[in-house]
UniProtKB/TrEMBL annotation:
PANTHER family: PROTEIN PTGES3L-RELATED, TELOMERASE-BINDING PROTEIN P23 HSP90 CO-CHAPERONE
Family the entry assigns: Belongs to the p23/wos2 family.
Superkingdom of source: Eukaryota
Gene Ontology BP terms: chaperone-mediated protein complex assembly; protein folding
GO CC annotation terms, alphabetical: cytosol; nucleus
Domain CS: 12-100
A single MF term (Gene Ontology): protein-folding chaperone binding
Full protein name: CS domain-containing protein
SUPFAM superfamilies on file: HSP20-like chaperones (SSF49764)
InterPro entries, sorted: CS_dom, HSP20-like_chaperone, p23-like
Length: 157
């Protein structure tokens, strides 16, 4: 595998990023209109992004992660208006309170509240809902049965 070396350009600006946390993955979307010349270097403890937009503005981001990730199972995909990064956590089922190791959040990073879920208690909540549903089905099958319907009109003789 060829290792990409991304050199910081003299004049650049950070791309705006929104992120959200899931059980096994962290997703980061860099908002760049019509990105081109995209280079992404994903390392266990950080990632580096370099790209240009349709007006040749240069974007460069260095993002040290809160925890280490699995680089072989992390991916990037370029879309018309964003660069989507999917990072596989080294420790699944562990919530990241913030994206970077440093608690001071840069102005270009924000939380994607539209996709954020509180998944930490998801298993227990789902089990409780399932138990309530199972009890309801059991109750419906034992009570309020009444007489069987007359189905003589279904005969096709």
């Amino acid at each position: 595998m060829n290792k990409i070396t991304i050199v910081r350009p003299e004049e650049s600006q950070p791309a705006r990023a929104i992120w959200y946390d899931r059980k096994k993955y962290v997703t980061v979307n860099f908002i760049v209109h019509k990105p081109k010349d995209v280079q992404v270097d994903i390392q266990p403890d950080k990632m580096i992004l370099y790209c240009k937009n349709d007006t040749d503005d240069v974007f460069y981001n260095v993002l040290p992660f809160y925890e280490n990730i699995q680089i072989n199972d992390s991916r990037e995909r370029v879309y018309d208006r964003s660069i989507h990064i999917l990072l596989r956590k080294l420790k699944p089922d562990y919530s990241w309170p913030h994206l970077q190791k440093d608690e001071a959040r840069p102005s270009w990073i924000s939380v994607d509240f539209d996709n954020w879920r509180d998944w930490e208690n998801e298993l227990e909540d789902g089990k409780e809902e399932f138990d309530m549903y199972a009890d309801m089905i059991k109750e419906m099958s034992t009570k309020n049965k009444g007489e069987a319907p007359d189905m003589d009109d279904l005969d096709s003789d």
